Amino acid sequence: MTMILTDDEQAILAGKEGEARAHAMDLLVRYGKALGAERLVDTNNVCGGVVGSLPGRRDVLPPDKKMDMDAVFSLLNLDSDKTLKIPPVKANTYKLIEAMDPDLYKVQRVSEETRRLVENTSEFCKRVGIQQSNTCTPYQVGNVPVFGEHCAWMESSAVVYINSVIGARSNVEGAHSTAAAALVGKIPYWGYHIPENRFGTHLVEVEYPVDDMLDWGLLGYYLGEMVHENIPVLTGLSGVPHADKLKHFGASAASSGGVEMYHLIGITPEAPTLEAAFGGSKPVETLRFGAGERKTAYEYFNTGRDPNVDFVMLGCPHASLEQVQLVAGLLEGKKLSENTDLWMFTPRALKTEADRMGYTKTLEMAGAYLMTDSCAALSKVFPEGTKVAATDSCKQAHYLPAILGFETWLGTTEQCVQAAISGRWQGDLS
Ligand code: F3S
Predict the structure, then answer these.
(1) Ligand 1 proximity of 394 Cβ (cutoff 6 Å)
(2) Number of CB atoms found within 10 A of residue 194's CB
(3) Mean pLDDT confidence for 122-128
(4) 155 with 144: CB under 8 angstroms?
């Protein structure tokens, strides 16, 4: 497949804007060809990882660790052995999750070496103009795309949110394609950028009154298992769900099945009617979600775990201010069990507000921490000796056993906080 490039794109490819942008354009063209894209599309909204300091990535750096950040970014973000002089980014670019909380890295047991890499990454971001929101939820802290906007975002839970809830257009990109997109302001025009690819495939009749965040997570997990990478269209919901519930729903469906887009009839912007959601086509399959499916999804996570909980992880995806407020209310005047830690993760911009409102202090008085920039599963930070965890997030419950080897309970936020106070899991599916 050949790609049609504009004169400007050809000129960048030929080196008119320097070696790094030429390399980035070449990377996008090769990537686009492999995907079958016929052209690139302009983007001015990129969210990616500057990945040199993240676990699993820093290990591939040479042992002397003396590489400058241009070399690290060239190697890990642009797949170039040659050090490219990285110019300022062209597209508005936000950085996703980091390896550590900048203030609580000692509690997180992060090494000095990693801390230095994070500092270097931060200096690099300042130099090239990458916003350091350091969160998997940029849409909670100021980067809210508009309907129809072409984006190049990397975090799956964020992509499914902006595609579905906002009607922006992004595929789940990688560290390389987002870095290249940041430098040239382009991304291959394929997948969810194309209107015809955004129609629903599976009809889902929701027969259980899905209401709290746990139910939304279980519904998402079930759907991901059933539809894989297709587009579910949900009917039978009552009322407009809070953004936090859709955040958990999408994250859950993206982790169990790779869902990047869904429609809620009468709620999400590309689904005013069933006909509009399916683009006039018939669903390939009709599924139902009732009490039985809900129970099956719940039992998948909650069977045969040790009831003694070492670590409660909240804030996956990163918590909103309302979620922090809820946990502060639950912990007011309480103390955590001496055998259990509770770490809650939120974007650093929201922690500033949580500090101002006194929520951070309330968590700390109880023995818990409100952390930023990082998360247990991806930053691989957790309290020493953890064997059994509990969380209110299906996505985190999916990843903690796989990545960190923890037995993991899943429940409501209230049940998780209760487990942190008593040290034992007592949650059930009411
Ligand atoms: Fe965010 Fe980590 Fe969950 S990056 S979506 S808190 S696994």
Answers:
(1) no
(2) 13
(3) 97
(4) no
> Taking the CA of residue 134 as centre, how many other CA atoms within 13 Å lie in the half-sphere pointing to its CB?
26
Structure-token pair, residue 197: 């690819």
Residue 20's Cβ-side half-sphere holds a number of Cα atoms within 13 Å equal to 23
CA of 317 to the centre of ligand 1 (A): 5
How many Å apart are CA 196 and CA 33, to the nearest integer?
20
Rounded-to-integer distance, Cα 134 and Cα 371, Å: 12
Q: For 370-382, what is each residue's pLDDT tens digit?
A: 999 999 999 999 9
Encode pLDDT of 323-356 as tens digits.
999 999 999 999 999 999 999 999 999 999 999 9
Q: Give dist(CA 221, CA 225) in Å, integer.
A: 6
pLDDT at 20 over 70: yes
The per-residue DSSP string of 103-140 comes to TTTTTTT--HHHHHHHHHHHHHHHHHT-B---SS-GGG
Q: Is 344 in the pocket of ligand 1 (CB under 6 A)?
A: no
For residue 254, the model assigns a pLDDT of: 98
- 239 by Cβ neighbours in 10 Å (0-12 / 13-18 / 19+) ranks as exposed
- Res 64: pLDDT: 60
Q: Is 317 in the pocket of ligand 1 (CB under 6 A)?
A: yes
The predicted structure's pLDDT at residue 63: 62
Cβ-based neighbour number of residue 302 at 10 Å: 18
Residue to substitute in 51, 395, 406 for testing ligand 1 pocket (most ligand atoms within 8 angstroms of CB): 395
Residue minimizing CA distance to atom 6 of ligand 1: 316
Tell me the pLDDT tens digit for each residue of 182-239: 999 999 999 999 999 999 999 999 999 999 999 999 999 999 999 999 999 999 998 9
Ligand 1 atom with least separation from CA of 136:
1
Residue 113 pLDDT grade (very low, low, confident, very high; cuts 50, 70, 90): confident
Any ligand 1 atom below 6 A from CB of 97: yes
| CA-wise closest residue to 47 among 123, 161, 199 | 161
* pLDDT for the residue numbered 199: 98
Residue type, 398: H
Section 264-271 average pLDDT: 98
Question: In angstroms, rounded to a whole number, what is the distance separating the alpha carbons of residues 166 and 163?
Answer: 6
CA 31 to chain centre: 22
Q: CATH fold of 303-422, please?
A: Aconitase; domain 3 (3.30.499)
CA–CA distance, 340 with 384 (Å, rounded to integer): 11
The protein residue whose alpha carbon is closest to atom 4 in ligand 1 is 136
Distance 414 CA to ligand 1 centre (A): 20
